[in-house]
Amino acid sequence: MTLRHFLSFSDLSGSEVRTIIQRAIELKRQTRAGVAHDYLLRGKTLGMIFEKSSTRTRVSFEVGMLQLGGHALFLSPRDTQLGRGEPIEDTARVLSRMVDAVMIRTYEHEKIERFAQHATVPVINGLTDHEHPAQLLADLQTYTEQRGDIGGRRVAWIGDGNNMCNSYILAARQLGFTLAAACPEGYDPDPGIVKAAGDALELLRDPAAATRDADLVVTDVWASMGQEDEKSARRQAFTGFLVDSELMALARPDALFMHCLPAHREEEVTTEVLEGPQSVVWEEAENRLHAQKALVEFLLTGD
Ligand code: CP
Ligand code: NVA
User: Fold this and answer.
1) Ligand 2 touching residue 163 (CB < 6 A)
2) Is 135 known as a binding-site position?
3) How many CA atoms, within 13 angstroms, populate the side-chain half-sphere of residue 209?
4) Among 33, 84, 244, 257, which one is most buried in terms of CB atoms within 10 A?
5) Taking the model in full, what pTM does it have?
6) How far apart, in whole angstroms, are the C-alpha atoms of residue 281 and residue 269?
7) Are domains 5-132+288-301 and 135-284 of this chain identical in fold?
8) Residue % of the chain over a pLDDT of 90
9) What is the pLDDT of residues 240-294, one digit of tens each?
10) Locate the Aspartate/ornithine carbamoyltransferase carbamoyl-P binding domain: which residues (predicted)?
11) How many Cβ atoms sit within 10 Å of the Cβ of residue 151?
């Protein structure tokens, strides 16, 4: 089997993503019906390196591996040699000889790429400053379950041109939807990703223009992990980028609202929208579990 990594959303083709989503939907249905999947990855292990905090990513990968009959190891720099300066390349070579796959959440994207270059097992991006592709699988599963295939739809991204936004742009290109991203000046997504997106991306400054006729409205925190010092400057720059019911009213009547969570109520989104009938954020969070089970199965078994 060829070694496959999932460092960027662009590491999967559109048809592979659709296959993984359908499998995730199937695994979810079966899990809810009490069907056990503990024979699928029996005895397989996933090493999980977390250099940033996490609730959903950690729990979903760990529980997912357990449900598939495998095991996940939580590795933090605080109590591994990574925190004492052991090179990432050495860690990649050592872990590859002991575990079947590695998930990494870190700051610089370049670090996960260097890890993957030296790994002989699949490496999964559990969030870097540049991308959050595992979250995209859950978002796309959620959209598909609620409204059918996302191809041809209009998705509004409101706020920071951050890791989530970059992965959304790549997903738009891979799956054939339009991403209308409204970002304040100075907070645009990655220029290389923007350039490659072609007409899959409309890069705007006005949240209303992006949201008009959207099928899905998505936002995220204004200050991501590692940007804590920029909080007050960002609060100023993002004035007018709050997703509230007035903004949601510009979207299509059946539009959904998503947020990868954790959310800051009354900052990037009102409680009314987050807890309202168009919000699918809890389903979206749960789908991290199902989508990642399907992803790990795909990377480890090729189906
Ligand atoms: N959405 C997400 O990745 O959440 P965590 O930071 O809790 O893992
Ligand atoms: N953009 C956010 C996503 C958190 C899941 C961050 O990087 O902190």
Assistant:
1) yes
2) yes
3) 9
4) 257
5) 0.98
6) 12
7) yes
8) 99
9) 999 999 999 999 999 999 999 999 999 999 999 999 999 999 999 999 999 999 9
10) 4-145
11) 10
And the tokens for 60? 């979903």
Q: Which residues line ligand 1 (CB under 6 A)?
A: 54-57, 127, 135, 260-261
Tell me the per-residue pLDDT of 173-193, one tens digit each, with 9 for 90 and over.
Answer: 999 999 999 999 999 999 999
User: Which of these CATH numbers, 3.40.50.300, 3.30.750.24, 3.30.470.20, 3.40.50.1370, describes 5-132+288-301?
Assistant: 3.40.50.1370
Give me the residue spans of the domains in the chain.
5-132+288-301, 135-284
Show contacts of 75-80: CB within 8 Å, 24+ apart: 75/47, 75/48, 75/49, 75/50, 76/49, 76/50, 76/51, 77/49, 77/51, 80/49
**Sign of the CA dihedral running 301, 26, 139, 155:** positive
